[in-house]
């Protein structure tokens, strides 16, 4: 089986039209040209802390992301 070379940023873009909190999160990330395109959890979390984002939401979404990889 071939692994899909997604990063968190490319993965979450699939949810930008979903009318749920994950969709709102995806929409915001899609509009942020500086959001890190990485697989490094700490880099993303640090970026979100700096921008006062909802870390509980991010953690829940990250867990979902990890389960779908």
Give a written overview of the molecule.
It is a single chain. By secondary structure, this protein is mostly helical. It has one domain. 58% of the residues lie in helices and 0% in strands. The protein contains 4 helices and no strands. The protein has helices at residues 8-12, 21-31, 41-50, 55-68. It is globular. The chain starts with 7 loop residues before the first helix and ends with a helix. The relative contact order is 0.17. The mean pLDDT is 93.
How would you describe this structure in keywords?
single chain; 69 residues; mainly alpha; 4 helices; globular
Number of helices: 4
Give the ordered list of helices and strands.
Answer: HHHH
Stretches where pLDDT is under 50 for at least 5 consecutive residues are none
Count of discrete structural domains: 1
Tally the beta strands.
Answer: 0
Q: Radius of gyration in whole Å, from Cα?
A: 12 Å
End-to-end Cα distance, whole Å, is 12 Å
Structural class: mainly alpha
Question: What composes the largest sheet?
Answer: none
Q: Which percent band covers the strand fraction? A: under 5%
Bin the helical content: 55-70%
Shape: globular
Q: What is the average per-residue confidence, as pLDDT, rounded to a whole number?
A: 93
């Amino acid at each position: 089986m071939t692994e899909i070379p997604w990063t968190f940023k490319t993965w979450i873009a699939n949810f930008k039209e979903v009318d749920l909190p994950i969709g709102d999160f995806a929409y915001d990330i899609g509009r942020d040209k500086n959001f890190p395109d990485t697989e490094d959890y700490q880099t993303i979390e640090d970026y979100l802390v700096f921008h006062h984002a909802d870390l509980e939401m991010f953690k829940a979404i990250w867990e979902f992301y990890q389960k779908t990889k």
